[in-house]
Amino acid sequence: MTSGEDFIKKEKCVYTYCYCEENVWKLAETLKNNGYELGEVYAVIVSNQNKTIPIWKHGEGFGPVVWDYHVLLIDRGKQLAYDLDAKLDTFPCMLSKYVEECFKPIQSPMLPKRLQRNYRVIQAQEFLEKFASNRKHMLDPRGKYLQPPPQYDPIRTKDCDSNLMALVDMRSRPDAFGSVFDESQFLEFLFQGKK
After folding, report:
1. What are the residue ranges in the chain where pLDDT is below 50?
2. Is 58 one of the annotated active-site residues of the chain?
3. Is the distance from CB of 38 to CB of 28 less than 8 angstroms?
4. Per-residue confidence (pLDDT) for residue 4, from 0 to 100
């Protein structure tokens, strides 16, 4: 099977609220295990130095939700966006519709600097091979989970217990991977030669 939209139904995806990075890892794993070509598929981590990024269509009502970070999966070749937290009519969604409705780039120049988004783009196969999270970012000072964790074991590699916060940090770091873009660079990456 080669088309993710043929077998990925939102309600069948592994999903845990507030664990978008693991949801995306599981989604990429499902695509790969079903023979989907991952060449143009990317995990996208959205954040900034202040960890305050607005995303629309994620909460109740019309305004944006301001997250510390968010992770989604895109297929640049097929121009599809997979975001299990987005409240959109279709899943996957056309990438142009997703960007317009969830990121509202027309409004981006008017956003205060502290809300301007950066994007770390990681090829899906590399994300599957290198991503790790011990979930400590979801623990309060007493060691209790802020939101219930996924029912499966934390995602780790043989060499890494956790690199999530290094990936969320949009500065250049030796322990992070992928390419970091500002919003205009990200949009050019998504749509160059596609429109």
Report:
1. 1-4
2. no
3. yes
4. 47
Q: Which two tokens stand for residue 84?
A: 């299990």
Distance CA 68, CA 74 (A): 20
Of 6, 13, 18, 70, the active-site residue reads: 70
| Cα–Cα distance, 190 to 176 (Å, whole number) | 21
Euclidean distance between CA atoms 17 and 20, whole angstroms: 7
List Cβ neighbours of 175 (8 Å cut-off, separation of 6 or more).
Answer: 163, 166
Residue 110 neighbours by CB under 8 Å, 6+ apart: none
In whole angstroms, give the CA distance from residue 43 to residue 114: 23
The 8-class DSSP code of residue 78 comes to T
Q: Which of 18, 58, 75, 83 is catalytic?
A: 83
Active site includes 6? no
Is 70 annotated as catalytic? yes
Q: What is the pLDDT of residue 108?
A: 75
Beta strands, E only, 84-125? 93-94, 118-123
CB 26, CB 54: distance < 8 Å:
no
Specify the 3-state DSSP secondary structure of 152.
coil
